[in-house]
Amino acid sequence: MTLLLFGCSTHVDNLSKFRIQGEVITQESGVPVQGTVLFFTDTGFDYVRSKNMSAQRVGQSDSGGKLSLKFDYFWGENKSIFTGSSPQTFILSLEHTAYQPMKILLRATDFPATSNEIQVNLGIVKLTTRDPTSPVR
Fold it and tell me: What is the domain partition of the chain in residue ranges?
């Protein structure tokens, strides 16, 4: 007797809560950078959106250059006996008109999760002044 297993899969909706902290300063002088915009790009959570690589704005640095942001990210995956868990990778992009943009590639499982909240501490992020001849995004 032959047993055939077809791609039986189940769709699962998930919620990941993020808390992102850090400080944004200038590379040259160490001065805090106010208004640096932080974007989140899914590269390995949702099985559809991670392929689109579209960034969503999640906040910006305050007058002291501090980042202290919380946001919820809803995502889905198809699970079957043939597939593993999603890699839960993402990009945090920091952008400011006066500075070179910065992209940081991360994996959620590399950070502690307290009360189902992924604690991402970026520490001190140093931005380099933008070349005046380079175009602003």
Answer: 14-127
**Which top CATH class is 14-127?**
mainly beta
Beta strand 37-42 pairing with 9-26: unpaired
pTM value? 0.83
Residue type, 122: L
| Averaged pLDDT for residues 58-72 | 97
Low-confidence winner among 10-14, 23-27, 36-40, 91-95 (lowest mean pLDDT): 10-14
- Total Cβ atoms within 10 A of residue 35: 14
Q: For the beta carbon of residue 45, count every other beta carbon within 10 angstroms.
A: 21
DSSP code string of 3-53: ------EEEEEEEEEEEEEEEEEETTT--B-TT-EEEEEESSSSTTHHHHT
